[in-house]
Amino acid sequence: MHIAVVGAGLIGLPAASLLARTGHSVSLVDRGEPGSGTSSTSFAWTNSNNKDPDVYHRLNVAGSEAHARLQDALAPAEPWYIHTGSVMWHAGTDGAADRALAERAALMTERGYPVHLLTAEAVRTEAPHLRLPAGPETVALAFPSEGHLHVREYLAAVRDRFETDGGTVRTAEAATVGSSADGVHLAFRDGTVEAFDAVVVASGKHSGDLAVASGFDLPMVRASVPSPWTHSFLGYTGSGADLLDRVFVSDVLNLRPTSIGGLIVQAPVMEHLCANRDAADPAGRTHAEVRGHMDAWLDRLLPGAGHVERLVLAERSLPADGRPVLGPLDPHGRVLAAVTHSGATLSALFAEAIAGFLGAEEFADARELFAPFDPHRFAEGRAFTDGVVQEGLGKQ
């Protein structure tokens, strides 16, 4: 088949690569350099931690397993999928923090998701440079199956394999896509039109616009105005990776090491400031406030890690009910939508499922995992929520 994949980020690029590896002729289309959009600013925590409903939890568990398969298949010189686990902590001291951790551990244990309790002494063993202000009782949780992606290295390795397998990359902006029983026509902003056997719409926050322009229904939360649902502040340090080999998540600060010696820093408690008028201004008061919070908690939790040298307002791609979307938009099954806010965790699994949709029966199981996430759930009233993004959705 001759297939176009629109969007060269965490969803589109691995999908294009696997399609080329399984024998298709694939054109990867993006308005910018592959991996330079939303995917370039991701905390990239791979997990299925407290993701509801259970069908969504199972999907994310399978996502981490797919990353391991892909890394084994491509055998990179330097791994991009780092599954050294995570540590979770809450800063509260009124007993609510301990209850929240206990409830999280009970729910994850009920689902069969690996978790164990950490005392202060155990924290010093698993993450010796972390300084958690707590007594000798349980102070944190460990999730050994979790990890993170080095996104730049991941996408570079996948792109190399894509081009080795004969795939082509085109810098262009898709305008509309239309299908018939005989094929698909993809129109570009420059006025050109090309024919394909199938098109995969995987252009993140732009997917909804392309779908609407083409007469399809793909409800997305608008990202044109920053909000806590569609945006996040990410800080970058120049050092500290030698002090932390895993993901650290809490209500005040999230941390994970980068491949170049620094840390990526996220501050969940500051996410509401994404709605401020100056949220995108590096010289504005909001950036100064967020950096101050990040630096203060870095000094407290990971002494010697340095300070935030760069802060960005990162974007998220968010379907209207907060859940992934994968399946045909058209009645001919030739135009697939592939969108999620959990791109880091689900990236490799999306690729397998897309290949399954387009004829690779060895990936039928992956395709079936996405059956509850068909885009027609919106039109048929089968969304998981009432269409309002609720607390917790849009997070990684």
Automatic annotation (TrEMBL):
Keywords: Oxidoreductase. Pfam families: DAO (PF01266). InterPro entries: FAD-dep_OxRdtase (IPR006076), FAD/NAD-bd_sf (IPR036188). It comes from the Bacteria. Residues 3-355 form the FAD dependent oxidoreductase domain. SUPFAM superfamilies: FAD/NAD(P)-binding domain. Gene3D superfamilies: D-Amino Acid Oxidase, subunit A, domain 2, FAD/NAD(P)-binding domain. This is FAD-binding oxidoreductase. The lineage of its organism: Bacteria, Bacillati, Actinomycetota, Actinomycetes, Micrococcales.
